[in-house]
Amino acid sequence: MSAPLHPAGPRSPIERTLDRWSRPLLVIYWPILFLATHWPGLTLPSATPVVQTDKLVHVAVFGLLAWLALRAQLLTRLLGRHVGDLVTLTIVLIYALLDEYTQQFVNRYSGIEDAVTNVIGVLTAYLACRPKHTIPRRDRLAITARWLVILLTPGLLLLFMRPEANPWLIRLASTVGLGTHGADKPGHLYVAALWTFLLATAMPAGLRRPRWSVLITVFVIAASAPLIEMAQRDTGRGFETADVYWHQVGLLAALVAWVLIAGAQPLLTALNIGTRTHAR
Fold first, then answer.
1. Which one of 19, 72, 153, 267 has the lowest number of neighbouring Cβ atoms within 10 Å?
2. What is the pLDDT of residues 181-212, one digit of tens each?
3. Distance between CA atoms of 66 and 72, rounded to whole angstroms?
4. C-alpha distances out from residue 61 to 32, 68, 74, 125, 159, Å
């Protein structure tokens, strides 16, 4: 007997509509996305140092592609829901990287920063599509994380805002062998990764809304980078686009770890680790 396309439980009219239209929309959307990213001379809206418009577009369009592919569940009957989602995720990830790489052959810009934002969009869609909250954590851990975010965020902001904090960031970078990249770069990476984990653990949308917590976490962490740089410019530290890039790399590193933990759900369940989950 083949596995059902969807886990048992009531689904809203919106979810049933999405289930019905996800496959035809995927068939239409994927070729359109390919043409849009490979059409010679086609450019995205101009980006500014504060609002990275083109990067937002990359996150949105590849996040939508992954969301439609996961919603369509083309591999569920063959591989089951969990494995099917992981294989679908892998396929879309590979395509997102190949799409960026092949743009150079049609006279389009191809850069590592665009590839990073493509992957962020895909991983965010995967985590938001999880039928249950599968990241191992307890309610008390969520409360602890919320207090840590509230207590530590002001000090973190002061660290990045005050010019005299640069020597501390340089010392941190040198300690881990990344001092040659500058003071702020590894600092942005580490902090973005750590705060992604903290905010995700804090479940900002509540324990009953894990999908919204994913979206809020990614949006807050991604948006904080240009806002921090803009504030630094006003305090005399200057605005560096490279800092925004390293911040997004930190977000990406946290998302990769997050996806690996979610993907290891069957193994964790078998070991009776983090078996408590929250329904849709």
1. 267
2. 455 567 778 888 999 989 988 888 887 788 88
3. 10
4. 11, 11, 20, 11, 34
Token pair listed for 182: 């500058």
Q: Name residue 81's amino acid.
A: R
Distances (CA, A) of 248 to 7, 165, 224, 225: 33, 21, 10, 8
Residues contacting 94, CB < 8 A, separation 6+: none
Residues 6+ positions from 20 with CB-CB distance below 8 Å: none
Supply the pLDDT for residue 15.
67
Whole-angstrom CA distances from 93 to 31, 55, 86 are: 16, 17, 10
- Count CB neighbours of 16 within 10 A: 11
As given in the structure block, the two tokens for residue 13 are: 């009219």
Amino acid identity, residue 273? I
52-107: per-residue pLDDT in tens? 567 788 899 999 999 999 988 888 888 888 888 899 999 999 999 999 999 888 88
Structure tokens given for 14: 């919106």
For residue 278, the cross-strand partners are 133
Query: CB of 225 within 8 A of CB of 248?
Result: yes
Amino acid present at 167: P
| Rounded Cα gap, residues 202 and 196, in angstroms | 10
